[in-house]
Amino acid sequence: MSPNSPGSANDLVPMLMRRLVIVLTLAVGGLTACGGSDGDRDAPARSYTVALQIEDHEDEYRYLVVGDVPTFQVGDEVTFEAENSGTLAHDLQVVGPDGLTRGTAEAVLPGVTLTLTVRLEDPGIYQLNCLVDDHLTAHHMQEFIQVVDA
Ligand SMILES: [Cu+2]
Fold first, then answer.
1. Residues lying with their CB under 5 A of ligand 1, a single-atom ion
2. How confident is the model over 30-77, as pLDDT tens digits?
3. C-alpha of residue 76 to centroid of ligand 1, in Å
4. In terms of domains, do 81 and 29 share one?
């Protein structure tokens, strides 16, 4: 008799439960927002701006963080201000650790700064992507940030 591999079936249960918890949290959050009486729940713990610079030298397209990178924490409200210092139009999409899009800013021409505010609701790795043409697929125009529990 071969022993059951403990990883496969058992791991699925906590994952489903976590999904359920997330769904429930969203539902409660929605209700709270409608009620409007509990102001603390909707207010971000911290709110700040992160300056980015967009560059596209030859084959390398990228977002550069200007200055220090903060420690991103769950609950933070972050405004990305990305100055397009390149020669092409670029945009910005933020994707959460679950693969769902948290926000998208329209493409801006060279010399223009785009702004995107997102709420970091979950711990994990978030992606910053450029969705213009083949910038992501062919030029890997992508940056990652890590969000930790507060
Ligand atoms: Cu781009």
1. 90, 130, 132, 135, 141
2. 333 333 344 456 788 899 999 999 999 998 999 999 988 899 999 999
3. 26
4. no
